Design the sequence.
């Protein structure tokens, strides 16, 4: 989880998104399962009627559209695991780091003292997969600090920990 | 209404608060809105149905019916407003302002004074004619004003503002220095500042002294008009008009002229908005923070206490380059993202005034020569003024304005520079940093570049620097997180006067802290910096 496979062929020695002395925690691989299920549902909902229509009326363009869509979905399915692997977070003494993305990479630093509230949420599918999402909110709407795919126990621990740390370092706006 | 308001301690319990009503004319002013809204809705939405009804009744009777309906709606509106006014009360305690509203659905709202972000006194045209004003208290979060007291008598509103600001600053009435009781030095009080050692008040009543203020700049009307002529909108409008006229002539068909209607309405609205908010724009410095006064029909006096400005943006379009004009916008947590009129610190500033505006927000820029730094930020390229620019290889992703991307870290703030034709400079004080991010797209990755983003509260300013060297950006992220933390630890308390009590003694001294007067500027800035008689 420390280096990205593609960082090796770059001429750079260190990955700037891999701040030194930071131990990243990966999210649960069950997030990949959950996302694959969602993709699967989309595939069924979109592809089945398309294929049925295409077969029924023998429409070549519809077949081609369906094939294109299937290709996109397959590619997305292929990417899901890598995307989930790229997700990580790290609790430091004074702030929380979150990184995500392979193509569009992002690293967010949220100081504990800046947190206004913490959300823990999980939908029906996420609950079935045993994962939850923790989201940090600051006074800035631009703060995109979402950690999806945490085991519920870890999510609860993180929430309590963030809340207590935030309280200790609370400052005005 | 004239008895002075005693702020009771928060612990007194809800019923012990000094609950007050708003001005009795309020329902009349509010009732109008119901009527106008009704007529507008009926007129615009149901004009077809109206026509049918008119045909059914015949013209004579239709008029009577219409008049009757309008009277009825007006009466309902006024009665409702009157009833709402009867239950609406406010109270000021030493910790919060409470507002009770609601006829059917009761609501009690509490705005904590230590969370106060801004206090505005607003006078819409009608209220202004009647000598009434509305007091808006802004706290972070939510939409609209946290507490809106509409309407109060004008003197009452300014007095209440003085009290609220004094309480929010952590200054009790007893702490008012002896000098203030005899009246502030006349030169320190602004033209229409609340002149208020309330001589009529009984001895026991707490006396709050309006913080002395000193005007630092004023926007002359010709410059405002000039700035509008030098914006894109009128030229775009001219283009549309010429296009429509030429098109109509060529085609011999006037229906093309109807294109003009929405364009005219849009452009007219924009121009009117700019004139209305920019006219008579004045800014003053006071210990209570920045005080902005502006507005043609709707007069607005804003007070933003110290440390409440989250970010500043100084911007210049291509047409403003020749006269060297700049627009200065701010992020204040209470105003929110949707406010356009409140978030302006200076609609059209000269360079010197832009520097003064920045000084209002950040008295210490954290560099030895602030003016040179501001110059480098406004017009510099590459590493002028010590900026860290985007590396040369960034030309592949941004060939046009690559040389303007840059960042400078000072002791107190982060200065970000961008834009070649639309020059933009954003300043974020270290202690106002909310969270930080680093982003990198596929192209940037190949070029070993990364963009650095600072998240600020909702408002017009969104600070970021694009296409820095990825290691520079990563180091900046780390250091900025540390600097923001340290700055916050050393930042003043929310009750801003608690640290500055020593300054209270000399009324003029605090307010008169000299703005950085640029030595090289033409007379305007130094004239503007003088207090008006």
Sequence:
């Amino acid at each position: 989880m420390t280096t990205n496979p593609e960082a090796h062929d770059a001429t750079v020695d260190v990955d700037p998104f891999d701040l030194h002395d930071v131990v990243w925690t990966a999210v649960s691989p069950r997030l990949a399962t959950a996302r694959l299920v969602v993709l699967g549902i989309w595939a069924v909902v979109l592809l089945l009627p398309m294929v049925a229509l295409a077969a029924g009326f023998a429409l070549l363009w519809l077949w081609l559209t369906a094939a294109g869509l299937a290709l996109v979905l397959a590619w997305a399915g292929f990417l899901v695991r890598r995307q989930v692997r790229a997700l990580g977070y790290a609790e430091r003494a004074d702030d929380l780091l979150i990184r995500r993305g392979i193509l569009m990479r992002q690293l967010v630093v949220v100081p504990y003292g800046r947190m206004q509230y913490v959300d823990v949420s999980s939908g029906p599918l996420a609950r079935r997969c045993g994962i939850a999402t923790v989201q940090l909110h600051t006074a800035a709407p631009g703060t995109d600090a979402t950690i999806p795919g945490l085991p519920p126990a870890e999510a609860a621990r993180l929430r309590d920990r963030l809340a207590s740390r935030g309280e200790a370092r609370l400052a005005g706006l | 209404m004239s008895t002075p308001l005693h702020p009771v301690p928060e612990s007194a319990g809800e019923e012990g608060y000094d609950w007050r009503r708003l001005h009795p004319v309020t329902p009349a002013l509010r009732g109008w809105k119901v009527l106008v809204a009704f007529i507008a809705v009926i007129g615009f939405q149901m004009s077809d149905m109206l026509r049918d009804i008119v045909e059914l009744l015949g013209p004579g009777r239709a008029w009577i019916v219409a008049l009757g309906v309008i009277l009825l709606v007006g009466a309902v509106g006024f009665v409702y407003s009157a009833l709402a006014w009867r239950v609406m009360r406010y109270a000021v305690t030493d910790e919060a302002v409470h507002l009770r509203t609601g006829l059917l659905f009761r609501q009690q709202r509490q705005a904590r004074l230590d969370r106060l972000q801004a206090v505005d006194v607003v006078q819409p045209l009608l209220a202004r004619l009647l000598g009434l004003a509305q007091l808006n208290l802004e706290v972070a979060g939510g939409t609209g004003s946290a507490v809106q007291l509409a309407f109060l008598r004008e003197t009452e509103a300014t007095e209440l503002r003085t009290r609220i600001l004094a309480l929010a600053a952590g200054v009790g009435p007893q702490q008012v220095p002896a000098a203030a009781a005899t009246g502030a030095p006349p030169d320190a009080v602004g033209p229409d500042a609340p002149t208020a050692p309330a001589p009529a008040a009984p001895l026991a009543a707490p006396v709050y002294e309006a913080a002395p203020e000193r005007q630092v700049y004023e926007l002359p009307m010709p410059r405002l008009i000039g700035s509008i002529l030098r914006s894109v909108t009128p030229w775009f409008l001219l283009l549309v008009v010429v296009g429509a006229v030429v098109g109509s002539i060529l085609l011999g068909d006037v229906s093309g002229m109807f294109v003009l209607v929405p364009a005219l309405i849009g452009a007219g609205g924009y121009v009117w908005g700019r004139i209305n908010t920019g006219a008579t724009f004045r800014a003053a410095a006071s210990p209570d923070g920045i005080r902005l006064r502006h507005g043609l029909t709707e007069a607005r006096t804003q007070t933003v206490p110290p440390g409440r400005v989250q970010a500043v943006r100084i911007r210049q379009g291509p047409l403003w380059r020749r006269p060297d004009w700049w627009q200065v916008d701010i992020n204040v947590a209470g105003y929110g993202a949707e406010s356009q009129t409140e978030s302006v610190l200076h609609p059209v500033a000269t360079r010197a005034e832009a520097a003064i505006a920045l000084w209002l927000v950040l008295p210490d820029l954290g560099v030895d020569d602030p003016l040179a730094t501001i110059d480098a930020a406004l017009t510099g390229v590459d590493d002028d003024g010590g900026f860290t620019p985007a590396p040369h290889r960034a030309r592949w992703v941004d060939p046009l304005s690559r040389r303007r991307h840059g960042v400078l870290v000072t002791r107190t703030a982060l200065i970000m520079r961008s834009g070649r034709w639309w020059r933009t400079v954003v300043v974020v004080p270290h202690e106002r940093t909310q969270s930080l991010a680093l982003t990198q797209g596929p192209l940037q990755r190949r070029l070993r570049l990364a963009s650095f983003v600072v998240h600020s509260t909702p408002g017009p300013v969104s600070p970021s620097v694009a296409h820095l060297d990825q290691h520079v950006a990563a180091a900046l992220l780390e250091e900025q997180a540390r600097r923001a933390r340290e700055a916050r630890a050393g930042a003043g308390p929310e009750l801003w006067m608690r640290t500055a009590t020593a300054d209270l003694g000399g009324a003029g001294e605090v307010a008169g802290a000299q703005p950085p007067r640029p030595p090289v500027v033409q007379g305007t800035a130094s004239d503007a910096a003088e207090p008006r008689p």
In short: The first strand of chain B starts at residue 20 and ends at 21. The first helix of chain B runs from residue 26 to 45.
